[in-house]
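Incident review: delayed structure delivery

Summary: a single-chain prediction request sat in the queue longer than the usual turnaround. Root cause was a stuck worker, restarted by the on-call engineer. No data loss occurred. The affected request and its eventual output are reproduced below so the record is complete for anyone auditing the incident later.

Affected input:
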Amino acid sequence: MALKLPRTIRLDPSDTFVYARAAEPGEWAVTGTFLFFGIDPETLAGKERQAFRAGFLGIDSFGWSTLAVVTEASAEERAAAVERLAKQLVAHCGAPDLQAARPAAEEEIAFAQSLCDHPPNTLLALHRAGEQSGIRESFRTLHQKVGRLDTATAFRIIEVDDEEDGPAEELDIRTLAGKR
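Output delivered after worker restart:
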């Protein structure tokens, strides 16, 4: 069985607007819920509230991503992700040293790995809610509907025979830019 981990993905620029710090596309990701322990979710507002509600944490930038994508990984990449997260826990979360941070980082990466029991390229979304007993997480997967979309493309190029449709229309962008 192949090893799989979530990576951040950005399908549009919205993460750069809704989060104080957006994760870069392609970072290994964890849920990041540990950053909200001890915080009353009702006190969060704006971009912090959005990160609480729906953000995956990119472990390189410590920024947020609305979606993650299931990605195959090697054992070496997984080990490097644990090490990178451990360093971030020391730098951002008050872990006293790497030796103390590694078990927590390992636990977070293991949980993230458990979310990836899906085919590669499956999108993952998360929703957090504050409850009396603590923080509740729920996850859902988003799958491409076969036949409706081409693989990860926003546009499809189709060839048009100009002879059938009449002369081709030309567009001069420089001229349009001057006409404001």
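Verification: The radius of gyration is 21 Å.
Action items: add queue-age alerting; document worker restart procedure.
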